[in-house]
Amino acid sequence: MGTNSVNRRDVVKATAAGLLAVPALGSLTSCATGGDEDTKAEKGKKSAKNPLGVKENAALQAYIFNGGYDDKYARFVSDMYEKRYPKAEVDQKKTERIATQVQPRIIKGDPPDVVNNSGAEMMSISKLVKNKQVSDVTELLDAPSWDDPDVKVRDTLVPGVLEMGQFGTDACYQLNIAQTVYGIWYSDTMLRDRLETEYPKTWDDMLALCKKAKKKGVHGWTYPAGHPRYMFFSMYSMFGQAGGRKQLDAFDYLEPNAWKTDAVKQVFEAYEELLAKKYVLTGFDGKNAHIEAQTAWTKGKAVFIPDGSWVENEAKDTTPKNFEMRVGASPSFDKGDPMPFGTLYAPPGEPYIIPAKASNRQGGLEWMRMMYSKKAAVNLFREVSSMPVVKGAIDGMELPPGVKSAQQAVKAAGDNIVIAFFKEWYADLWRVDFDSVIGKFMNGETSVKEAMNAMQKAADRTAKDPDVTKIKKS
Amino acid sequence: MKTETQPATGGQTSGKQPSGRTRTSGGPAFALAIILPPRFTPERVRNDRRYRTLDKYRFIVGFLALPLLFYAVFVISPFLQAIYYSFTDWAGGASANFVGGDNYVKMWNDEKFWDSLQSSLLLLVVVPLITLVLGIFFAYMITAGGRHRRGQAISGVAGSSIYKIVYFFPQVLSIALIAVVWQQVYSSRSGLLNGLLGSVGLEGLEQRWLGGDYKLALFSTMAVIAWSFVGFYVVLFSAAMGAIPKDVYEAALLDGAGRAATFFRVTLPLIWDTVRTGWVYMGIQALDAFAVVLIMVPPHALKVTPVYLYERFREGQFGYATAIGVVLLVLSMIFTLIVMRIGRRDQIEY
Fold first, then answer.
1. Which residue of A has its CA nearest to B207?
2. Fold assignment, B105-342
3. Of A254, A418, B51, B101, whose Cβ has the fewest other Cβ atoms within 10 Å?
4. Any transmembrane segments, and where (chain A) (predicted)?
């Protein structure tokens, strides 16, 4: 090649020519939207012992969210599965990043068989439903339950599980396994012995209690400023109490001016007063804010914290033995409220999905059937002290104080259980918009009116956004 | 800092041209010659003047084909696909409908996008300035900022070799780690920063660095990004400064130039090319800022465009998200062009 004289210009020319040829090449490479071909799902013979027709030697893959619940409770179910189908192997993986790990595989058409779609990085379930990427699990709901062949799976579950999986259709796409009780959490010891008072049933009592606490050098409230959306956990049932189910529906269906009603104003003003009187212990504003705030609370620096029932497990290490953890329903404003004191925000949570193209879809359904067995429910409760959605699974068991009080709260609420569907349907509206609005509000940067307007604006934007799948009343 | 001085004349015109003015008609033979090594190529073809061109490009293609292919498949094709998807309503499903410029119209009217862009552009303008100025300053101190020692025209400040290593430390840490560490430092209740301020009696200056005021979160983010990249530029600029011949400095010294004059008249012009490159690179880093903001800052306090884009992805609005990505690409290109333009100077050879 000695006769060659190659200079830079030639190389650049050749490179440019090569790159210009790329668009042609790009059209050849398969695009990311590919993978529409049908994958054959493994199926076996149906029988009384195998009502879903699981292929006995088909491997099963499950992705579990690695959060406050860990994945031991799911391993229990996987072990059950392997015991029942000795030829099948269950490959259970745990991750904190469900979307990163699972979404590409769903798009490609090669998804795992069971996915615990949870955590801050969960996939948008509305989009999955819209894209037909999740299975309708009606087949499972109508199958005989694990413990009693005469009872269908759907009849063993507490109310709300089915509704939360429907997304405005007749089918069911999502299975929640634990009932989360949201509310105002406190220590009974603190209330009884240190403040010598009872849990406040009205907001006026709440303010009086906070005043009393302040005199004793304790803050009435604390909240994780780094995740200000925690405020929702105590506010939501108050919206219901002040405005009735009509108000809550208005949120869910993105109705115009849903966030500008007197009920919403009343709730915001209640918290504004709490802030103005400096009853709130603030300053937990990192990503670990919830742990910091909970620790301050278990150490007795604040009386109340808005939280969910996972707090008992999460704060286990810092909770003193005589703490006597309790959850209270949010106080009401006055007797004429459309919904009474005791109204409880207690939705089934910790969602699971069976991807539509799962190669062992029947196995995935069977895995969920086992998850809804009494045995697995009890184990779930033992592992994470959350209330399983299987009816009566933990009745008669010795319960830790927090769970016990949560169960009592559910019983006391009766029909007045409320569920924020918009939080599931329009995840961003809650996770991003509410977070930012309430964050500024709790910082004292915005007034009640500004916060309401900002929330309404966000809801309107969601309603108008063509990229957001709307869910209509079914 | 050698500049490319190779003349663009190219050897082929001056090379000895064989007598071949003969217009050979050998089409098939010529086509065959593309794959044949020279010694098997028929004499007739080899003497054709076109053969030289062919041989040359065949040579270039020979070593460029594979890297270009990789580049095309893993860099260019994703870009093109992203541009394509930005004109669709793709939601992660099996099909995507072409919607024309709808995503861009939506972006134009999307207040949240503009909010995020405002922070991102501020980062783009401010962070490179801070980082580069600090980097150049430290590098100058390390290479030429010290006292004059006997026999040496320039020398660094005492302990400069240690500084060089210490400055580089943040560069060794992964960006995720940096974000986590700084989040702890900024923590308003248990953080090092507020603790330090408190312990020296400056409680009044204690701040909610991340979760509070919006502008403060942006400022805190800028500080972290600058902190984590300064070390890299110290090393980069030290290397550039080290390449400047000592006699240039000696001449300046003889002419009576002080430290400031030496810096502005000698050092800075001679490393200008490196500064420009660094500027472009740092600008793109700042425009990104994804990891630091996502990990360190609570989402309600600050949003930068890449994080906003990421959230669109999370919500399954893939078409819209890629459209935002395309805008970011265009912005980085405009930024690069501007920097390359305003920084253009005659190149100095030494």
1. A283
2. MetI-like fold (1.10.3720)
3. B101
4. none
